[in-house]
Amino acid sequence: MSALPAPGDAGPAPAPVASGRRRLPVVLAVVLLLVLAGVGVVVARPGPVAGWLGDEPESASNAAGATPEPNPSDVLAGPDPNAPVPTPDGVRAALDPLVGAAVLGSRVNVSVADVISGQTLFAKGADDGTVPASVTKLATAVTVLAAREPGYRIPTRAVAGAKAGEVVIIGGGDPTLAIDKKGYYPGAARLDDLAAQVRTALGGTTPTSVTVDGSVYSGPVYGPGWDADIPTGGSGGAVTALMTDGGRRDPGAEHGAAARFAEPDLAAGKSFARLLGVPTDAVKRGAAPAQAAGGTPAPGTELGVVQSPPLIRMVDIMISESDNLVAEALARQVALARNQPASFDGGAAAMDAEVAELGLPADEITLSDGSGLSRRNRISPSLLTDLVRLAASPDHPELAGVFGGLPVGGWSGTLDERYRTAPGTAPGAGSVRAKTGTLTAVHSIAGLVTTADGRLLTFAVLTDQVPGGKETAQPALDRIAAALAGCGCR
Fold first, then answer.
1. What is the mean pLDDT of residues 285-289?
2. What is the rounded CA–CA span in Å between residue 132 and residue 136?
3. Beta-bridge partner residues of 112
4. Rounded Cα gap, residues 176 and 483, in angstroms
5. Distance of alpha carbon 369 from the chain centroid
6. Which of 322, 393, 431, 444 is labelled catalytic?
7. Per annotation, catalytic residue among 2, 117, 134, 374
8. Which of 76, 129, 244, 414 is most enclosed, with most CB atoms within 10 A?
9. pLDDT class of 2 with cuts at 50, 70, 90
């Protein structure tokens, strides 16, 4: 999923916005149509389904440990690039009665812009940093695709230890790693494949112990600003460089909250040991030795490697399922790509730096994690709409993968049950494609919406002082996006 090169004549550049925000390049109609192909047309169902990552998890991996992926099929139509642009007055008339809803609280910050021209159509507190919750994952997606490229795969390696029979498993930060073909994430790399490689490489040497090396990550395993119940509530968990199935105890559990291992690295190490026939009491944490001469095999010799799905697929999983452990892993990939510590602080700083390098106002984003679980995060609505427009730009085709996993109103992901029955939300069904966010007193939504005239807009609505619960706040947010979907706003 990537944007086509822009034709030679892009037309006149739009006039600078009054706020002085950096103007993104004009997004041409042909680019936008293909981006929407990435958003919808080429998606059999939004999200990580078996057809994307391989319907036969037991199929043989290639030499690099990657599973071949079939092409998805077409479903959703794109917008009309010649559709009329809504006017600011028209959008204001549609949204003013909705953004002041009491159920949304005293801070409702909003940005709406036209994707093709970049024209700002509505702004209310648009440049104000607001707690974004899981909408943070849009920033994580853009920055990791920019820093690592969509095809990058995260390795999990095994090397010979310093002692005879010692096998060191080195976690590279792949949260989707599975034990066997029954893993949670379709198409994931597997420990049983790695164990088979190790047995072959060792020849007649019998494995006697397993050492877990997760030293590529550093710092605390739980994020700053996380609510006290997050580590044990099933939506978050310990962030370690080696884990299986996102740290889930039961890979067969349905997506969402699930019981997680308190020490996912050791749990993965013990699973690997069982596959090698090593007693689980012979598993410990440690460091891989430097390569040295002597021994068969010599210490540090690579015994096997398996590779994660490409980052573009992991981004899709993160966004469509709002997977927090995948998000934290991807934030650390941004840090590693920028030679920063792979920690919460290092990932957040690297993401901020990547935003600035992309030419966006980095003073409008302050992060403490990559998932949005932290209440210390601040992002402005206008930065989110800038991120969406940048991802649609012909200058950055590598970022178009952001759109593949966006939930569709009334159909998939976190929007599956929304835009269906709540009064005033029906026009958003099938027209709103967005990432949502929810913490106590925090509700947000940001993404794309197609107007009744077929014009594609990007929007972000962030609230962080909501007096009630999601039962009233989410329909109020949905009415805002649905109003854009249901009008020409001219």
1. 96
2. 6
3. 122, 459
4. 38
5. 12
6. 322
7. 134
8. 244
9. very low
CA angle 425, 431, 434 (to 5 degrees): 85
**Sheet holding 283-285: strands in order across?**
283-285, 209-213, 166-170, 155-160, 302-307
Give the residue from 159, 204, 402 showing the smallest Cα distance to 303. Answer: 159
Give pLDDT tens digits for 329-350: 999 999 999 999 999 999 999 9
- 270 catalytic per annotation: no
The pTM is what? 0.86
* pLDDT-based confidence at residue 61 (cuts at 50, 70, 90): very low
Classified as helix, coil or strand, 436 is strand
> Does pLDDT of 54 surpass 80?
no
Residue 2 is a catalytic residue? no
Q: Establish whether 134 is a catalytic residue.
A: yes
* Alpha-carbon span 461 to 126, nearest angstrom: 9
CB 230 within 8 A of CB 222: yes
Inform me whether the pLDDT recorded for 180 exceeds 50. Answer: yes
- Asked if 135 contacts 445 with a C-beta cutoff of 8 angstroms, the reply is yes
Distances (CA, A) of 87 to 84, 122, 153, 304, 445: 9, 9, 44, 59, 22
Q: Which of 137, 270, 308, 368 is catalytic?
A: 137
Please compute the mean of the pLDDT values over residues 122-129 and round it to a whole number.
Answer: 98
CA atoms of 152 and 145, how far apart (whole Å): 9
487/262 Cα distance (integer angstroms):
49
Q: Residue 302: is it exposed, middle or buried by C-beta count within 10 angstroms (0-12/13-18/19+)?
A: middle
| pLDDT exceeds cutoff 60 at 250 | yes
